[in-house]
Write a structure and sequence with these properties.
The protein is mainly α. It has a single domain, classed as lambda repressor-like DNA-binding domains (434 Repressor (Amino-terminal Domain), Orthogonal Bundle). Helix content is 69%, strand content 0%. The chain is built from 5 helices and no strands. The protein is globular.
Length: 62
């Protein structure tokens, strides 16, 4: 997810704002220290301009 965010030239703050979540929450997610609810996965996928299945594939392959 971090790679995709950086590819889109988004800061954590930018992505968190677009997804409607807190920046520290996103930071924890990127570090793997926090689990996401399905609604927040959906929000992040939309903010990253990805489908849910593409986001899951991205995470699975990393």
């Amino acid at each position: 997810m971090k790679t995709r965010r950086e590819k889109l030239n988004l800061t954590q703050e930018d992505l968190a704002y677009q997804a409607g979540i807190h920046r520290t929450y996103l930071s924890d997610v990127e570090r793997g220290s926090r689990n996401l609810s399905l609604i927040n996965i959906e929000r992040l996928a939309a903010a990253l301009a990805m489908s849910l299945s593409d986001l899951f594939h991205l995470v699975e392959c990393s």
